[in-house]
What does this fold into?
Amino acid sequence: MMITYRMFAVWRRNFTVYKTFYKASLVGNIGEPVLYLFAMGFGIGSYITEMEGLSYIEYIAPGLIITSSMYSATFECTFGSFTRLTVQRTFDSILNTPVSLSELVMGEITWGMTKSMISGTTMMIIMTLFGLYTPDYSLPLILLTIMLTGYIFAAAALCCSSIAPSYDFFNYYFTLFITPMFFLSGVFFPMDNFPEAFQWFSQILPATGSVSLLRYFFHGIVSSPLYFSFCLLVVLSLGLTIAAIKITRNRLIK
Amino acid sequence: MCQSPYIVEAQSLCKLYNGVAAVSGINFRIKRGELYGFLGPNGAGKTTTMRMIQCVSPITSGSLTVNGMFVGRDDRDIKAIIGVAPQDDSLDQDLSVIDNLVVYAGYFDIPRNKAISIGEGLLKFFHMEERKKARIDSLSGGMRRRLVIARALINSPTILILDEPASGLDPQARHLIWEKLRDLKSQGASMILTTHYMEEASQLCDRISIMDQGSIVLTGNPTGLVKENVGNEVIEFSISDNADKILGSINERYEIDGDLCIIYAKNPSSVLGKLAKYEISSLSRRPATLEDLFLKTTGRQLKSGP
Ligand SMILES: Nc1ncnc2c1ncn2[C@@H]1O[C@H](COP(=O)(O)OP(=O)(O)OP(=O)(O)O)[C@@H](O)[C@H]1O
Ligand SMILES: [Mg+2]
It folds into this structure.
């Protein structure tokens, strides 16, 4: 399973498509976080005076960046990749060329990651404008965390697409995996008051690690073992890459 | 590399899908510059054979070489010299006509500027230059198929694989594609095509293989095969009560399909002379065609398939 620069031809294909409708996509990227900030920050936030020494809006800001990255990569590599895999037969055409299956998979994952970088970066800019973040030495580390998060969710979503018989299957993925991640990874509240089993479960969710890393880079608050979180993200990236290649191969090579 | 006169060689080539044979031990050799056709009823294994040559469907057993390289070992190098126009419409719906070509060229590592100029040349060749910026869903079936073939040519392939290039098209669109395939052939391209159109096979192909249920039943030059296996003319008439007697008196191969009797005549005038003795209504005679050969070798009955 040789992976060469040819994976970028696949990435470039997706980028070429993106360029034709990036405006619509950016409206979502900008509109959504602003909506969240208003609803959660000013709406709910006005009832919560303080969270671990922060205003509520400050408390949730890092987590919102992670959830937005998570959803971007997830949508791209579920509905997007699945359409290319089945209805549009894009993957079939690509496999007729010297691009290998592993490169195809890597091109899709890195594209999903790119999409999450786009929404993550947009979020960062908006938060900076709202005064929720002041750029400093932590910026590259924040971007790296967003990148890893995007990569993991893109790879996981591609695994799901490659076993999905139809679009309906994604209901399971979102209900059983993505939505719990949204609520249980410490974005909106600390997990401390939950039963111990939940706390453990929360610790191994990839988004939990990302959220606590980002919260540390934003506010210096340590809410989970940071090195563990970082290593977990790296290990998950590698594991999910291998899984995605294997599962997609089973689906496409007959 | 020592150049063999054959561009594709298959020996005892087999493909099983979950233990069920789709291709069961076929042998064939395609010469350089040849236009080679695969014919056969639905499910005969044509597409499966093409997909093995394209290195997208792993072979179960046997050996298959393309330009001296081994399928299963040199896949990336083989794919680099093959152009594929698949049976199913697989154009990139998200991209414009020209971007379909340019992006596809990217998979072959062709730089963008070069890809644009090759792409524009191909669109011109296929009379599509005004539709350069069009969306795929605005194209007619004939244009889509031309674009699929244009896309297959983007890497200047040594060998072109066309899986049913003209299926589902109106006669004008079909003839335009045939004309273009002839042009390509005169430029020296090696081509493999699968088809259900007998006219296509007899007009275009230097040699054909007729497949049935995963095996090759016949191989040869279309005209020669018809002469050899069917005869010169076909005489058809409705069967009357004394059919047995009539058919017993003629010394030619025949077939009965419902109430139609079909005689494959090597010597048509002698057959007609004998038939004249009987009162036969609705008798017709016509030159033997590839269709006769096809129906004769693969059977007239619709198969439920393996
Ligand atoms: N992915 C697959 N899994 C299982 N069986 C398959 C698969 N692809 C093809 N087959 C079977 O292999 C046999 C040969 O199919 P193939 O598509 O090669 O036929 P074909 O000659 O191209 O037919 P057509 O003229 O309809 O295109 C058929 O019985 C088909 O059902
Ligand atoms: Mg077929």
In short: The CA atoms of residues 52 and 59 of chain A lie 8 Å apart.
